[in-house]
């Protein structure tokens, strides 16, 4: 498995040892110790996201849903007929798992599972990013960005001055390679974090953003229309603060008259 924290540890290892020696001479070890602890926390968070359930749809959920539907139908027969159109949802049955997919779920061909609120399959963590681990994935990116910015500062401040360019390159060759690698990783992580925060603020996923013309519940919508959008503040609060499974059908049909 490859990950950004491993790259950070490798590319700043030489400079970090120098940074530790300089901090030890000054009697200040708090900053390098905090940096190492952040890197360790990042690696731990990486393995948590990599190994956790991203929100797999199971057959037990389908059975419980069918039971609830049957109970609701039985109770509806006892109530008087109320005129008016009642909105229902025809769930799509996955052609691979053969289970009913809730709205916003998608089958991942790599993991061989249907994932709730599927965002994408991340090759860096070798796992899907879905409803249960998406917020941790965004937190992981934010922590990576902070570590890379700190590593960028360490590498920049570690360059040794020299009279000629040849002497400077000979003194700082390894540090220069580390600086370039950190800069590339920093740009990639910054782009990923900004794009995910933008999508989260609009309550959409990477899969929905890239393939909305092929998704049954979105292809009839215009490019500016998002039936799940509840406003930036509520979208962010729902994403970061609500940990339970969300029935996206309720939000989707709040202003809809057409059925999927």
TrEMBL record:
Belongs to the DHHC palmitoyltransferase family. Pfam families: DHHC. The DHHC domain is required for palmitoyltransferase activity. It catalyses: L-cysteinyl-[protein] + hexadecanoyl-CoA = S-hexadecanoyl-L-cysteinyl-[protein] + CoA. GO terms for biological process: protein targeting to membrane. Keywords: Acyltransferase, Lipoprotein, Membrane, Palmitate, Transferase, Transmembrane, Transmembrane helix. The keyword Plastid does not apply. The chain crosses the membrane at residues 29-49, 137-156, 176-200. It is a multi-pass membrane protein. One of its GO terms (molecular function) is protein-cysteine S-palmitoyltransferase activity. It is found in: Endomembrane system. GO terms for cellular component: endoplasmic reticulum; Golgi apparatus. This is Palmitoyltransferase. Its main location: membrane. Its EC number is 2.3.1.225. Coiled coil: none annotated. The lineage of its organism: Eukaryota, Metazoa, Chordata, Craniata, Vertebrata.
């Amino acid at each position: 498995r490859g990950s950004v924290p491993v790259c950070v540890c490798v590319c700043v290892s030489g400079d970090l040892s120098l940074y530790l020696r300089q901090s030890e001479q000054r009697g200040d070890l708090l900053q390098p110790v905090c940096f190492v602890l952040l890197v360790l926390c990042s690696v731990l968070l990486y393995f948590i996201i990599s190994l956790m359930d991203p929100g797999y749809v199971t057959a037990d959920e389908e059975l419980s849903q069918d039971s609830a539907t049957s109970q609701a139908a039985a109770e509806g027969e006892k109530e008087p007929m109320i005129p008016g159109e009642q909105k229902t949802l025809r769930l799509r049955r996955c052609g691979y798992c053969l289970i009913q997919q809730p709205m916003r779920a998608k089958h991942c061909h790599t993991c061989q599972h249907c994932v709730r609120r599927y965002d994408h399959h991340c090759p860096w963590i070798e796992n899907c990013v879905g409803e249960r681990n998406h917020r941790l994935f965004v937190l992981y990116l934010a922590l990576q960005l902070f570590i890379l910015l700190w590593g960028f500062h360490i590498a920049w401040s570690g360059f040794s001055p020299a009279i000629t360019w040849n002497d400077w390159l000979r003194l700082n060759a390894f540090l220069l390679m580390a600086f370039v690698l950190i800069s590339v990783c920093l740009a990639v992580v910054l782009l990923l974090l900004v794009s995910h925060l933008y999508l989260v603020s609009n309550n959409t996923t990477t899969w929905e953003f890239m393939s909305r013309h092929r998704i049954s519940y979105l292809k009839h919508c215009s490019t500016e229309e998002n039936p799940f959008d509840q406003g930036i503040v509520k979208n962010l609060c729902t994403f970061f603060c609500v940990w339970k499974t969300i029935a996206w059908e309720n939000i989707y049909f709040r202003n809809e008259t057409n059925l999927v």
